[in-house]
Backbone:
């Protein structure tokens, strides 16, 4: 019996890859949400805007998993792992496993400021987060978003498109600093400004204030901003608590090897909750993206099926904001040369990042060809053989 803890992208892919590979044994999938495996990227974009039913996000119809011989338990959080007896424990019982697969994902990183628990303060990581946010957002005139990363800027684009006043508070000196270069940051800042978003850089939130609900935010410099709604979008924290409590090695994520195996030979993990070694980039990585969840789960399935392959990907990401499609391949951290290709003014260009003469990343704005070409060239130029 394979027991899967978590019912997201990596869990769905593991099931698909195992069944396609001829695996016939029982599989049990346990998720703490009440939904079948679903896509998360649209939550801050199309799903927030169009408000469709939850099942429009499902990877497969709900009945599909039963047809694949999967026992699916939704809304059943696993509380602990007993490695000695090889079982997982949950409120109403336990499940024995031969192989355990952890795909527990991430949760919104909390922000420890006064007023963070006031009604009117939200985060966005799950379907239920969007449902909780949507009605108050409809009624809001002044929205303050704390964090200028992917989710913060995507929600800013949605809210501004609906005619709401939006202020983005970013503690760093530029938006998206963790994932891109000053060229892309400046372009995105300018584009949002042109659409009427007020982006405050180097802004430190001191408190969220109001009588019984959010009414304003106070900045560290003493400034006050009116707010009917506050969205906290300051990053994600890996759900590695379960693994750590079971004695598995965790380093801001469940530590796995190149095949997705943890410190325990019968326990695997994949997706946003993991940190794995990359020879391509010379360090351990924790990636929060669809690509990682899919491809790492495929690697784990290959190992279980007796066909192991080393997982060392060229990561890719994307973000839709207004009419902009930002596509990113590779990791630009540590680059020593950046070259802009194309026409920034025409909103169709790319930035290529190199280190020691090798292409390590490409960011493309409305330029799918540059993105696809970049992915291929990065794979070729950063390839590291197993022997090396």
Residues:
């Amino acid at each position: 019996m394979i027991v899967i803890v978590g019912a997201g992208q990596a869990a769905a892919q593991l099931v698909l890859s195992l069944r396609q590979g001829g695996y016939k044994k029982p599989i049990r999938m346990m998720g703490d949400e009440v939904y079948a495996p679903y896509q998360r990227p649209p939550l801050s974009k199309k799903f927030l805007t169009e408000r469709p039913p939850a099942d429009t996000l499902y990877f497969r119809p709900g009945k599909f998993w039963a047809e694949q011989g999967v026992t699916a338990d939704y809304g059943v959080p696993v509380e602990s792992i007993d490695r000695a007896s090889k079982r997982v424990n949950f409120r109403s019982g336990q499940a024995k496993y031969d192989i355990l697969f952890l795909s527990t994902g991430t949760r919104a990183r909390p922000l420890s400021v006064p007023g963070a628990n006031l009604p009117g303060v939200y985060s966005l990581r799950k379907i239920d987060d969007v449902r909780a946010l949507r009605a108050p957002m409809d009624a809001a005139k002044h929205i303050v978003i704390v964090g200028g990363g992917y989710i913060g800027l995507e929600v800013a684009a949605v809210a501004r498109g609906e005619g709401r006043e939006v202020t983005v508070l970013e503690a760093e000196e530029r938006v998206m600093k963790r994932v891109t270069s000053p060229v892309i940051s400046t372009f995105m800042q300018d584009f949002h400004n042109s659409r009427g978003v007020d982006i405050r850089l180097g802004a430190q939130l001191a408190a969220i204030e109001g009588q019984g609900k959010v009414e304003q935010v106070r900045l560290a410099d003493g400034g006050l901003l009116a707010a009917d709604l506050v969205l906290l979008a300051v990053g994600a924290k890996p759900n590695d608590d379960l693994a750590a409590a079971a004695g598995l090695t965790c380093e801001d994520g469940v530590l796995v090897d190149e095949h997705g195996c943890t410190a325990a030979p019968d326990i695997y993990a994949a997706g946003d909750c993991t940190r794995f070694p990359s020879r391509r980039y010379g360090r351990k990585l924790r990636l929060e993206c669809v690509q990682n969840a899919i491809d790492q789960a495929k690697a784990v399935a290959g190992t279980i099926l007796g066909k192991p392959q080393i997982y060392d990907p060229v990561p890719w990401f994307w973000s839709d904001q207004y009419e902009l499609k930002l596509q990113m391949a590779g990791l630009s951290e540590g680059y020593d040369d950046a070259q802009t290709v194309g026409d920034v003014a025409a909103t169709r260009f790319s930035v290529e990042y190199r280190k020691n003469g090798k292409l390590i990343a490409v960011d493309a704005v409305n330029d799918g060809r540059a993105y696809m070409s970049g992915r291929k060239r990065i794979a070729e130029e950063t390839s590291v053989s197993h022997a090396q």
Observations:
- The mean pLDDT is 96.
- The longest strand covers residues 348-355.
- The CA atoms of residues 131 and 213 lie 18 Å apart.
